[in-house]
Amino acid sequence: MNEIGKHKIKIYDFPECGDDEEESRMLKRLKDRVPFAVVGSNTVIEVNGKRLRGRKYPWGVAEVENMEHCDFIALRNMLIRTHMQDLKDVTNNVHYENYRCKKLAAFTNDGKPVRISNNFCPQRILNTYMVFWNPLAQMEEEKKEHEQKMKKMEQEREQLFEQKVKEKFQKLADSEADLERRNEQMKKSLEAQRRELEEKRKAFEEEKTAFEAANKDEELVRRASVDVNMKDPDTKEKKKEKKKGLF
């Protein structure tokens, strides 16, 4: 840390956590580990029967999630669990504003940057960074951006709703047309089946009539033959005698 201060290297300044003793102890532990020595790895290795994420070297194994080997857990806790919002605020209110005001300062009459005092910025940040910030202008700009964003989102929602409604109507129209087409096809098919059955019925009736007429004629002939035989009972005997006489 002495070398970092000697060379005027700017690093993250941990904010004060208030009267919470637990957070104070955690902050002290984090500060004591600065600067962090982090080991990263996407390889899972087996150490003493346990599968761990780490790096294997000829002299041993460096475990990623072991506080005795590296500061990965401390860095992760700081970035995700304890100081994420403060880091975001510093990035937005300091680094971005420095960049923005530096660019805007190029439009001054003499072309020299202008330092704008900021009474709303925390003292710890003022002691560490050169801050250019006009809070009223920023609030007005953020308000306009928010209104434009909301208006754009509303237009997009309306367009999306109209598109969904059109798609729904088109889908219903397509379904109705498909049902009409199937209905017409079914009507034609049923009509064809009806005509076919009607033709078969007529053919059957004609065959039945012809069959009954043929059976009727045959029955008449048989009855006539029976009547003749009954009227002349000696005819058969005469015929038999005639045949015997010939032999």
TrEMBL record:
Pfam families the record matches: Septin (PF00735)
Lineage top rank: taxon: Eukaryota
Region Disordered, residue ranges: 174-210, 224-247
Septin-type G domain span: 1-106
Signal sequence, start to end: none
Biased composition (Basic and acidic residues): 224-238
InterPro entries per UniProt: G_SEPTIN_dom (IPR030379), P-loop_NTPase (IPR027417)
GO molecular-function terms, A-Z: GTP binding
Protein name: Septin-7 like protein
Origin species: Argiope bruennichi
